[in-house]
Amino acid sequence: MDKVSSTVEEYLKTILRLEEKFEIAKTSVLAEVLKVALGTVTNTVEKLEKQGLVIHEPYKGIKLTEKGRKIALEVLRRHRLSERLLTDLLGVDWSRAHEIACKLEHNLPNDILKNLEKVLGHPKTCPHGNPIPTSCGEIFEESSEPLLNLKQGDVGIIVKITEEEKEILEHLRKFKLIPGSLVKVLEKTSVDSLMKVKVEDVEAFLSFRLASIINVKKV
Ligand SMILES: [Zn+2]
Ligand SMILES: [Zn+2]
User: Residue 49's CB: how many other CB atoms inside 10 A?
Assistant: First the structure.
């Protein structure tokens, strides 16, 4: 198959992430995440459907076909291995690494990627804890749940940050809210939607929104 454009790759990757979260990608949500007009999304999705990459179910949303999913997983693989390259070998901060990886993910040849994976020692996840798809297109998700699900007194180990955004990542890092850290829920108040947590030895306040994108494994 011919190489698809970076725009197509960006769409497929985003649809995959939305499917993981909501089972199906709604056109309106896709437009919001990609920061483009709804009309543009509708047009592009139509093109993707003609290429056999997605199925658009009227009034429901968009799903990837087998072919579309394969490409989306390849993009994720390039993204997450690029992040590892940047943080592990080049010492780049994890928030910046994500931004740069958004560009590298469209441009790394497969043979280079294989070598990179070997040099990195076949990492299982990106620096933010999200699983790296294998070269065969398989992805293994470690079981975890949003920190928000935990109750007062519960303790969990951070597994992954499900939304990689520069500002969010910078903020989380300051409080050591990174994969592998131990978090204890000290207080949860619905009135102001805040969670008070203890990360290793530091106390921090998290909005419910932030607590919903940090996934943990309860211990
Ligand atoms: Zn990233
Ligand atoms: Zn990542």
Answer: 15
Domains of the chain in start order, with CATH, are 6-64 (1.10.10.10), 77-141 (1.10.10.10), 145-218 (2.30.30.90)
Separation of CA 196 and ligand 2 centre (Å): 25
Rounded CA gap, 21 and 162, in Å? 10
Specify the pTM.
0.91
In this prediction, residue 58 carries a pLDDT of 87
Burial class (CB in 10 A: 0-12, 13-18, 19+), 125: middle
**207 C-alpha to center of ligand 1: Å?**
22
- CB-CB contact of 35 with 95 (8 Å): no
pLDDT band with cut points at 50, 70 and 90 for residue 2: low
Sorting pLDDT into bands at 50, 70 and 90, what band is 190? Answer: confident
Cβ density class 53-76: b for 16+ within 10 Å, e for less: bbbeeeeebbbbbeebbbbbbbbb
Residue 100 CA to ligand 2 centre (angstroms): 11
Q: Which ligand is nearest to the CA of 105?
A: 1
Q: Is 3 exposed, middle or buried (0-12, 13-18, 19+ CB in 10 A)?
A: exposed
